[in-house]
Amino acid sequence: MTNEFGKTEELQTEASCSPTKGSAEGDYESEFTPAETKKLISRIDRRLVLSVGVLYCISLMDRTNLSAAAIAGMIKELKLSVLVGTVSRYSVVTLVFFTTYIVFQPPSTIIVRYLGPRVHLSSIVVAWGAVMIGMGFAPNYEALAALRVILGILEAGFFPSCVYLLSTWYTRYEIGKRYAVFYLLGSLASACAGILAYGLMQMNGLQGHTGWRWIFIIEGALSMALGVGSYWALVDFPDKAHKSFKFISQRESEFIIARVNKDRGDGNVEPFAAGKFFRAGLDLKIWGFALIFFNSTTVTYALAYFLPIILSQNMGFSIGASQCLVAPPYAFAAIVMYGTGWLGDKYHVRGPIICFNMLLCIIGLPIMGFHKNANIRYFGVFLTTAGANSNIPAAMSYQANNIRGQWKRAFCSATLVGFGGVGGIAGSLVFRTQDAPNYRPGLYACIACCLFTLMIVGVQTLWSLRQNKRADRGEIELENDGDDKKGFRYTY
Description:
Strand content: under 5%
Largest sheet: 2 strands, antiparallel
Structural class: mainly alpha
Number of domains: 1
Shape: globular
Radius of gyration: 22 Å
Order of helices and strands: HHHHEEHHHHHHHHHHHHHHHH
Number of helices: 20
CATH topology: Growth Hormone, Chain: A
């Protein structure tokens, strides 16, 4: 079938259209034809994926616009080049965000279930927009750092909630493309952020504010406006969506739950139990997925926070050119991201996609750091940006395909994104001021993260193959969390 993204996908009718176990609702296959299913999934895609994707645009833009403001005069005006111990104040400002971002993520996937995505997500978007505006008026380094801490608390609730929400609507081999489009929109925002920042810099002196302050003020106001509008645009969980502005009917809601149940057996809402939620932490593979995400985000955040600075200091481009040259690598990353997501869904693979993306980084990082020609080093930026950013939705899909149970998925989403926050701290520190202009220790650290990912995927793949073969022989029942799901196999 062809969905709204213009790509062919298998509906897996037999695996997706059967009713929930014990349902007295009748034969879903006879009630929902392939054409009706296609129309329903397309409607969900347009409303759900695009709404959370647009919000993620501003989330990523608001989280990473420090680098644009840095070269626009913020470092000089707030004296952020001063060292605090062995790191600069600028690095401290970038990393304090992640201290609260990590801590407040696990409760978010519980809160979003009770408040609902529309209330929870729209509220925190409006609140962090207000914090962004405050950053535009920060009088000193201490105030800016404090506002970044508050921003971390608010944004902690966004990403894991979106990852969890998306996973409840789609079957395992539909989710890769959706995660890719969700994160792709963020990459496009990153591509445009530098150009937008360059335009906002031209407001320098207006109302007595320097150009870098207008970057925060205008982008914060935009966030608040989109946050208010998102209350009506966002979609609830499948079991409640028919009550939210009648987005889908109750019958359609039951159909979505039934096809997820047929695919992996966790479409129905489970009562919250703290023991079940935290017991998921005993599953070692969850931490393997989290480490893969950590390695990927270390590279992506390093690029987000330092790429304009590297382009300016290391490659010799002007400030204006450095702002604008951020865009093409992220646009290229969006193409690679969707292409690898589509291939992963089509061929039901995840590990090989992650390895391919990491190989792009392993090739791109040495070119970016060591070649004598600045233009060729810029080509290395394309490969590194594409590989690292494409691995974010790939890792999310890898995790989503191999975890079952509503609250286990909630815990895993929070853990995955939490380790992404730890990667943000690492990414904030790898490119140190004293290593300018070559930043070689940071490049070595990023290469090490890529190699570590290849090792983890190799171990996870061998373990999954072994477990699947044992299940085929009838020796074990995979992921049987008391719901009697038969036939589940790990994806590798």
